[in-house]
Amino acid sequence: MDADTPAPRRRARRRPAGPDRVSARDVARHAGVSIATVSRVLNDSGPVADRVRRLVAQAIDELGYTPNAAARALVRSRSETIGAVVPTLENATFAIAVEALQSRLRQAGYTLLLASSGYDRSNESTQVRALLARGVEGVMVVGGAHDPEIEQLCAARGVPLVQTWTLRPDVACVGFDNRAVGRQLADYLLDLGHRQIGVVAGVTRGNDRAAERVAGITEALAARGLDLPREQLIERPYRIAEGQIGLRALLASEPRPTAVICGNDLLAFGAMLEARKRGIRVPDELSIAGIDDLEFAADLDPPLTTIRVPAEEIGRRSAEYLIDRLDGQTVATVTEVATSLIVRGSTGPAPQRGDRE
């Protein structure tokens, strides 16, 4: 009897106790076909008559069979999974990017495996190794400063790697110039007449994006003959409460800043809360600006001036880079996304001396 010719239907056997105990052999027996035919249907690895395909599909449905993904990966020599490592799952901007990344990958038939590094390069390297051990076909990471092992391991295995939230001419990346973002915010405030500018930055150790933003601010100040005193550069983790702590430290410095640049919107939200708690009028007495343009930024009172970062676009275009690479297409190595300054009510002209008394 030909493998694709169904045998006479036997009386249905008693269904196994649960889906986990149903095997491809059970499906073949239930459909009255060979196990090789079931394999061809599951893996789309050979011609199968439509009538036979329907019988197998019916048997799968009746038995509640779930194909073993690992076994299918071995058959296809592909895992159809992509790995991503982000610094934290607390930051909404990373969550937005991951959602867009996963959505686009799902459209192309890939599953996303996600890990968090906690802003620790050693841990990031460990997570990438673990993803590679599970057979991921592509990897996304955040930032441009990593343990060299990551690039080496991916290259050795032929696994495409894309770095995000950064621009590097020598690697595949989807992002923007963080130093330019810092310069843009500082120049905007300087043009408003501010000369005492404080900074509540993210922790720069292990975070090249935070360090580049501070470098951009420092460059803009230096271009106008100003500096950024150490006591007016406060580094805090990216949390609202930490923004409050950062502003308290800045207000204790002399001279007190008339404007504060925050390393992201979460820190800026905290700074705004602390200013209100202390009765400091924003922006009349103190201007505050952030980076990201999170959804809540426009709903504050006053609404937050910030740099809009297209996190969703970063996630989607990262997915498209990996998909195209795996499809063997020629793709651009560097993809720059556009950021933009969104001016709202939390910033204004520098107060005159009398206005602050």
TrEMBL record:
<dbReference type="InterPro" id="IPR010982">
    <property type="entry name" value="Lambda_DNA-bd_dom_sf"/>
</dbReference>
<dbReference type="Pfam" id="PF00356">
    <property type="entry name" value="LacI"/>
</dbReference>
<dbReference type="InterPro" id="IPR028082">
    <property type="entry name" value="Peripla_BP_I"/>
</dbReference>
<dbReference type="InterPro" id="IPR000843">
    <property type="entry name" value="HTH_LacI"/>
</dbReference>
<keyword id="KW-0238">DNA-binding</keyword>
<dbReference type="GO" id="GO:0000976">
    <property type="term" value="F:transcription cis-regulatory region binding"/>
</dbReference>
<dbReference type="InterPro" id="IPR046335">
    <property type="entry name" value="LacI/GalR-like_sensor"/>
</dbReference>
<dbReference type="GO" id="GO:0003700">
    <property type="term" value="F:DNA-binding transcription factor activity"/>
</dbReference>
<feature type="region of interest" description="Disordered">
    <location>
        <begin position="1"/>
        <end position="26"/>
    </location>
</feature>
<keyword id="KW-0804">Transcription</keyword>
<feature type="domain" description="HTH lacI-type">
    <location>
        <begin position="22"/>
        <end position="76"/>
    </location>
</feature>
<keyword id="KW-0805">Transcription regulation</keyword>
<dbReference type="Pfam" id="PF13377">
    <property type="entry name" value="Peripla_BP_3"/>
</dbReference>
<protein>
    <submittedName>
        <fullName>Transcriptional regulator</fullName>
    </submittedName>
</protein>
